[in-house]
Every structure is written in structure tokens, then in C-alpha cells.
Structure prediction request, 162 residues.
Amino acid sequence: RREHTNTVLEAVVSTQSTGGRGRQHEIERTGRSVAVGAGFIAPFVTFAYNTVDKVIGSSQTIVSSVKKVGLIACFSPLTNTGYMLFNGLLKGQNFNDIILKIRSDLVEILIVGYSVWLPTHFSLFVFVPLQHRLLISNIVGVIWTGYLTYAANRAAKQRDVL
Prediction:
């Protein structure tokens, strides 16, 4: 499946680029990213896109594109909460600590996510030919996964200092 292959690529690139350890690769962190991506993100995003297509159809007008972007925006809190939840569970974190992390970080992650993904999706649906959408989406996905990895590690380091 394409979604799962893309998830593996995003996990490897983002964990390598945000690890802060030079050439030493963190296999455990990459494995966690792959597990969360392949086990939750890819199936959930596939479900979200299929739902949007069923509700709105495959029209490429600006009105339908705005509706699609709006529906995708509705799925973002669920996607990002799921990412944070499953990533924390795979790290062995306490459930209450994970909930606290979600409460403290989710708004910032959503704001950054909306600033990245809403223009990306709008551009994809309106301007990018169908055969190039996956490529553009994957490039943005690698960058976004890198940001999520950075945000998760930054928050953990800040809490350790306190």
C-alpha cells in the first residue's frame, strides 16, 4: 500500500533529521514512528479522504475544493490526538501524562498544521493535476512528520528541565 510505504519514508527521514545525534540513527524512535504511521495515521487518513470523497464527490471546482479542505480540517484534531496518544503509549508513558501533553501541545500543533495543510490541500485540489498530488502531498508529509517529531522531542526535553 502506498500510504504505508510513505509512512515508512516519512518516519525514517524525520527521525534522522530531527534526532540531534548526527549520523547515529535511533532505530527505536523510527520503529515507533512507523508503527504509529502504519497502524493509525495511514488507515485514518485513508478513511478521512474516502469519507470526504463520498460526502462531496470528486469534483475539482473551487467550491468543492473548499468543502474538502474544510472537512479535512475537521479530521485534524483526531489525527494529531491519535498520533500523540499512540506515540506516547509506545514510549511507555503514563496515560495521564499523555493526556496532559495532548492538552498542552495540541493547540500549537493544530495551528501549525492548519497553516501547512490547509493551503497544501487547497492547492492540491484546485491547481495540481491528479497524477502529481501524491508526490506533493508526500513531500509536505515528510516535512510535517519532521515537525511532529521535533515538537514531541522538544516538549519532552523542556519537561525534563523543569
In short: The radius of gyration is 16 Å. The chain has a mean pLDDT of 77. DSSP finds five helices and no strands in the chain.
